[in-house]
Design goal:
globular; 6-stranded antiparallel β-sheet
Length: about 140
Amino acid sequence: MAHVTKGKEFIVEIRDEVGAGAAALETLSKQRINLACFVGYGVPGGKAYLHLVPEDPERAQAALASAGYAVQIHDAILYVAEDRPGLAADVLRTLADAGISVEHCYATSVGATNALLVIRTKDDDRATAALSDRA
């Protein structure tokens, strides 16, 4: 059975250079702050971004700020369900059929059988309701 909650997604800007991502993540690991999910990527201009979903957003924000990182914090939908082919397509179809625009989405495995989808939309309340109805 699927589980839908709201969470916080952090977007951390870092330099696109060797070790920058490791340093940012070490800031959190040294404080024993676990991440439910993260993704990182570089963009033109020597910048890179980490999208993080910390299990303790308040402590994560404090740790990153004290280390000098610029952090944007956004609401996100956290959708956990049994992993299977087509899960992400079905979730995005549910949102599309409800007329909800998805800003971005990424996923990871949770344990041996589940997947976590992190979803940012333009209307999280409606998206949460639509996804809860299919859960």
